[in-house]
């Protein structure tokens, strides 16, 4: 029987920690469903990239790292208002799965209450490899590139991602020239 796992994350953006965790989960399961969470969000400092841009990042990074497309599914999932219905919402959009991998307590709780086996995967170099740290370095002209697979850097350059996040972080300038 095919053993399938599920990993959910906003992937804003997809970084080397995500890549490592995907490689290690694929040693345990035959196929991995990767849900891109909060798919409706983009163009904010916490969630700068669209679901489509995040699909590009994952597709290119997994291909660059020799992970065959037959081993995974990439599925964008929008948030819904009711946490109690969210597992059903995920199940509606994904192939059937046996196990869930997440470090997020709410995600862990909702799936375990629905009867799923939930594992918190180990975090790799969490001080560096987190979306929050990547976005912070983008805003501060720091070295964000070394935190990402090369193909993700290319996608961010193609879409002018750093310019976008810096523009979004600017304070609005009023008609009188003052900063509000
Ligand atoms: N450094 C890491 N090593 C291993 N797994 C990670 C790492 N960072 C994130 N993950 C895994 O990816 C899942 C989804 O992560 P998410 O997209 O929220 O990334 P994040 O880096 O925590 O983002 P943010 O800082 O923007 O909240 C987490 O629940 C965790 O299991
Ligand atoms: N009610 C809901 O829509 C609901 C509930 C739990 C998690 N989620 C989503 O799952 C994802 C979890 O990923 P993170 O671990 O990256 O926070 C997020 O996109 C979060 O918004 C959504």
From TrEMBL:
Pathway: Cofactor biosynthesis; NAD(+) biosynthesis; NAD(+) from nicotinamide D-ribonucleotide: step 1/1
GO CC annotations, alphabetized: cytoplasm
Keyword presence, DNA-binding: no
Enzyme Commission number(s) from the entry: 2.7.7.1
Presence of keyword Transcription: no
Enzyme class: transferase
Pfam family, one: CTP_transf_like
Catalytic activity: beta-nicotinamide D-ribonucleotide + ATP + H(+) = diphosphate + NAD(+)
Stretches assigned to the Cytidyltransferase-like domain: 6-137
This protein's UniProt keywords: ATP-binding, Cytoplasm, NAD, Nucleotide-binding, Nucleotidyltransferase, Pyridine nucleotide biosynthesis, Transferase
Record's subcellular location: Cytoplasm
GO molecular function, a single term: ATP binding
InterPro entries cross-referenced by the UniProt entry: Cyt_trans-like, NMN_Atrans_arc, Rossmann-like_a/b/a_fold
GO biological process: NAD+ biosynthetic process
Transmembrane segments: none
Family in the record: Belongs to the archaeal NMN adenylyltransferase family.
Name used for this protein in its record: Nicotinamide-nucleotide adenylyltransferase
